[in-house]
Design brief:
The chain has helices at about 35-40, 65-85, 105-115, 120-130, 135-150, and strands at about 1-5, 5, 15-20, 25-30, 50, 55-60. It is α+β, with helices and mostly antiparallel strands. The protein has one domain. The longest helix is centred in the middle third of the chain and has 22 residues, at about 65-85. About 10% of the residues are buried. It has a two-stranded antiparallel ribbon with strand order 1-2. A two-stranded antiparallel sheet has the order 3-4. A two-stranded antiparallel ribbon has the order 5-6.
């Protein structure tokens, strides 16, 4: 696909600098194009089936264990998003996070803290990942203004 005569390539990226006196730490968050890999590694939990009178089978989506499993699944999805987005950051090496083992994914936050990053810096990293993977109203408004500035104000 081309836009304005140029071939569109690559996904959205967000540069996340963390200033340090000894040299800035730069994280690169790249948009995740698909959750297919996540779905293979962590299948979505299924609610238990209950049988109603008349032998009618329905899913019990209010089951406590199912809701807990669903909440854990959603947390893992967020961890996957962060780790996958940061995968191409220069010089970033996880020590306890193994991308193929979902049980290690929550370790990314512990590793960031052990590396000396505080909660605000970790929040900046996570927000950078979210910006790379979404379009918020601020980004849309900025793009709209850039377009209108280049075109002149539209006729009323």
């Amino acid at each position: 696909m081309k836009y304005k005569g140029k071939k569109l390539e690559g996904r959205n990226k967000e540069v996340i600098p963390i200033p340090r006196s000894g040299g800035d730490i730069i994280f690169i968050a790249e948009a995740v194009d698909s959750f297919d890999e996540f779905d293979k590694l962590v299948p979505e939990p299924k609610p238990p089936i209950i049988i109603k009178p008349g032998n009618v089978k329905i899913e019990n989506t209010k089951d406590k264990k199912y809701l807990e499993a669903l909440e854990e699944h959603n947390k893992l999805r967020t961890h996957f998003l962060v780790i996958k987005s940061l995968k191409d950051s220069p010089d970033l090496e996880w020590e306890t996070v193994d991308f193929s083992k979902s049980e290690t994914w929550p370790n990314y936050e512990k590793e960031l803290k052990e590396a000396g990053l505080n909660d605000i810096e970790i929040g900046r990293i996570v927000m950078g990942v979210m910006r790379a993977n979404s379009l918020d109203e601020t980004m849309i408004e900025e793009a709209r203004n850039n377009f209108l500035h280049g075109q002149g104000e539209p006729d009323s």
